[in-house]
Write a structure and sequence with these properties.
The complex is a heterodimer of chains A (about 300) and B (about 400).
Chain A (H helix, E strand, L loop, with lengths): L1 H7 L17 H13 L3 E5 L3 H5 L11 E4 L5 H15 L5 E7 H6 L2 H10 L4 E6 L36 H6 L5 E6 L3 H12 L5 E6 L3 H4 L6 H10 L6 E4 L2 E4 L10 H4 L14 H25 L3
Parallel strand pairs in A: 1-2, 1-3, 3-4, 4-6, 5-6
Antiparallel strand pairs in A: 5-7, 7-8
Helix pairs in contact in A: 2-8, 4-6
Chain B lengths: L15 E7 H11 L4 E4 L6 H12 L6 E4 L3 H13 L5 E4 L1 H6 L1 H9 L5 E6 L12 H4 L7 E4 L3 H18 L3 E6 L7 E7 L1 H7 L17 E2 L5 H15 L2 H16 L6 E4 L7 E5 L3 H6 L8 E6 L1 E3 L3 H8 L7 E6 L9 H10 L6 E2 L1 E3 L9 H12 L5 E3 L4
Parallel strand pairs in B: 2-3, 4-5, 5-7, 6-7, 11-12, 11-14, 14-15, 14-16, 16-17
Antiparallel strand pairs in B: 1-8, 6-13, 10-12
The chains are: A alpha/beta (about 300), B alpha/beta (about 400).
Chain lengths: ~300, ~400
């Protein structure tokens, strides 16, 4: 029973109450789980992101551990320097963890991320992917989903390109561990944090980040929508160890993407008659992505 | 003060080994002697041989450091920042475009009050040019770094050692600037001190209790509201005011230990009879030294410290000359203004104190050779009462 509880429950809280996040935000919850597992001998490296604010202003801290706020484009580089210095002082047990948003990961920080992954830096990179620059007020990033509106892709010029396949890009660096995580699947999420902690080298976790103000959702629906994203295969749960793909969750039945999208105001315009082709296109792309993922898993163990 | 005795074969320095080193290799040697523990690197001409040599020293075990090949200069400086936050002694080098690219992080490092020494081998921006120019480092004057300009390979080595004392005393980063090729790739006699001599002068980096070590949770760099931001700038400003005296003191103490002393500025042949004072930086200084025998009316004010500008030393050095002396900065930089960077600083330093006739001389940009003949042409131009701004090879 205790073992089972450990899979779901936080036994020792490593964050302080009063996180500055919006209601229903993914950041406070995901950091809470990560911190509870990694413990206090952890240095969190934070580039410009919502978490820069949530972590607390000068003199305050959300988390029991160290926080280094750094420049937008180079959190993995800053983490590289910190890791080297900690190793040299003999604190090899410390975790060095980048906490970045999708803008800092998919866009401005991509080169620095690729550099750190290529070098096999012994750090954990966590990307809270909420699909836009939310901290600056909902501008399009290359993680913004097809069909979503943002303040820089206002209707009717909603985003008509697909988000970058970041998991593909990151895992192509032949790193020991990369995984997608959902706050609706806590057991799976906690297992992945532990696996990341127990792996050496460059580790990458991408979390589907709920963002009520950015996604135009009801804060009380954050977890339900995150669950629907997995059930509709909009956000599949899988992990990649070196090039080997393992799908962690197979939805029991086919749930159409509309079920997830209709709860989010950023997709509202897609439910008008003139946009029905866009919805079809999203479904087709999601189906194709899933088939590709299944195939990747199939061939992963043939080599 | 650049000690010309290093050029004299009869002089020798105790506990030193004479070597023939290019400026870049003097820089690598100094980083090793200073026991820099973390070296993030990215190649760029003409700096590359500095980090190449350091990678070799680390690979062969000659040096105990963590050397990391980064993905860009922006990442180099961000990694340097991270290691310095965690208390490591950091060294790296860059040039021109690399320094421009790292601009954002230069500000962050200075604002975080992180000690480190970095070499910049100066070259300009687009169109592509890899030769001597100071527009890259002078464009970073306002990032808050202390800037020291070097004339010889010996001075490069000596200045890096002094740089670590300066940076670790005040927690302000130090940039040591070399001229591309004229210094970086020119072999010269260098007296390399024994490790034990450097150790006696530069102890291991002291922990100040602010380092992010993982054991004791700390937060660095969180959002600062308007009513608090200036608190940090004010404390920093008070330390900026100490830089000039500290550079002079460390240069003197270095002299006592190593036999070669240095100052924020060097005054050469400046006396009551001086008619023209060339204000120089780096290798052009050596060229001007070469014409002093035939032009006794010329003096040199060599700027070693440029940022923060050594106002007191400049005023003192010029206190002996009469008001009709011409002050002529030689500008190996063009920053889009009517005047170069050096004359702006000189005017600011002298404002309200002295009222000299000043001519600004643009020369030597993009590596163009400034020969003794060029210096003589400058003297001719000045004596023929030209415009206030002279482009020495034009009109």
């Amino acid at each position: 029973m205790a073992e089972l509880a450990h899979k779901f429950l936080i036994e020792e809280e490593k964050v302080y109450p009063g996180a500055l996040s919006c209601r229903g935000c993914g950041w406070a919850l995901l950091v809470r789980h990560i911190a509870s597992i990694l413990g206090e001998n952890t240095v969190y490296v934070v580039p410009a992101s919502c978490y820069s604010i949530i972590a607390g202003p000068f003199g305050l801290s959300h988390v029991r551990g160290s926080i280094v706020h750094t420049v937008f484009a180079a959190a993995p580089a800053t983490a590289t320097g910190i890791r080297a210095a900690l190793d040299r002082m003999g604190n090899r047990d410390a975790n060095v963890v980048v906490l970045a948003g999708d803008g800092g990961t998919f866009d401005i920080g991509l080169q620095s991320l690729s550099g750190a992954a290529s070098r096999g830096e012994n750090i954990i990179y966590v990307c809270n992917n909420n699909g836009a620059y939310m901290n600056t007020g909902i501008q399009t990033s290359t993680a913004t989903p097809y069909g979503a509106v943002t303040t820089t892709n206002p209707n009717p010029s909603y985003k008509k390109t697909w988000p970058k396949d970041l998991m593909g890009i990151v895992s192509s660096h032949n790193i020991p561990y990369a995984a997608t995580c959902s706050l609706a699947y806590i057991q799976d999420f906690r297992k992945k944090i532990e696996k990341a902690q127990n792996t050496k080298g460059f580790r990458f976790l991408m979390i589907d980040g709920p963002c009520p103000p950015g996604h135009k959702t009801d804060p009380s629906q954050s977890i339900s929508i995150a669950r629907l994203a997995v059930e509709t295969k909009l956000f599949p749960l899988f992990e990649v160890e070196h090039h080997r793909v393992k799908i962690n969750y197979f939805p029991k039945k086919d749930v159409p993407v509309e079920e997830c999208l209709k709860l989010q105001g950023r997709f509202r315009h897609l439910f008008k008659e003139e946009a029905k082709d866009a919805l079809k296109e999203i479904q087709a792309q999601v189906d194709s992505n899933w088939k590709r993922l299944v195939k990747l898993e199939e061939i992963s163990y043939q080599f | 003060m650049t000690d010309t005795r290093t050029l004299n074969e009869k002089i020798s320095f105790e506990r030193h080994t004479p070597k023939i080193l290019k400026g870049n290799f003097a820089a690598s040697e100094a980083a090793k002697l200073c026991k820099a523990g973390f070296i993030p690197a990215y190649p760029i001409t003409p700096q590359t041989t500095i980090v190449e040599e350091l990678s070799r020293k680390v690979a062969t075990g000659e040096m105990d450091a963590t050397y990391v090949n980064m993905d860009s200069e922006h990442s180099v400086f961000a990694a340097a920042m991270g290691a310095a936050i965690s208390g490591e002694r950091v060294f790296t080098a860059t040039s021109g475009q690399g320094l421009f690219y790292a601009h954002e992080v230069l500000h962050a490092i200075a604002h975080f009050r992180l000690p480190m020494v970095v070499c910049n081998v100066g070259r300009p921006s687009i169109p592509w040019n890899i030769w001597a120019d100071q527009s890259d480092s002078l464009a970073q004057r306002d990032t808050g770094w202390i800037q020291l300009y070097t004339e010889t390979s010996q001075e490069v080595l000596d200045t890096i050692i002094q740089g670590y004392i300066i940076t670790e005393t005040l927690d302000i980063p130090v940039m040591v600037v070399l001229d591309a090729f004229y210094l970086s790739h020119t072999s010269e006699n260098v007296w390399v001190p024994e490790q034990s001599l450097v150790d006696e002068f530069l102890p291991p980096k002291k922990k100040k209790g602010v380092e992010v070590d993982g054991y004791n949770p700390k937060v660095i760099g969180g959002l600062i509201p308007p009513d608090q931001y200036e608190t940090f700038e004010y404390a920093w400003w008070k330390d900026v005011l100490k830089v000039e005296d500290l550079v002079n003191r460390v240069g003197k103490e270095f002299g006592e230990k190593f036999g070669r002393s240095y100052q924020a500025v060097e005054s050469v042949n400046i006396n009551e009879n001086t008619k023209i004072v060339f204000v120089t930086t780096s290798t052009i200084t050596t060229t001007v030294r070469g014409i002093l025998d035939t032009h006794p009316e010329v003096g040199i004010l060599k700027l070693r410290l440029i940022k923060p500008f050594p106002e007191k030393s400049v005023v003192k050095a010029l206190s002996i000359v009469s008001d009709d002396t011409v002050i002529a900065p030689i500008e190996r930089n063009f920053l889009g203004g009517k005047e170069g960077a050096i004359i702006q600083e000189m005017k600011r330093a002298l404002y309200g104190k002295r009222n000299f006739k000043m001519y600004d001389i643009y020369a030597g940009m993009g590596g163009k050779d400034v020969s003794p003949t060029t210096i003589e042409k400058m003297i001719e131009k000045i004596n023929s009462n030209p415009d206030e701004v002279i482009w020495i090879d034009f009109d």
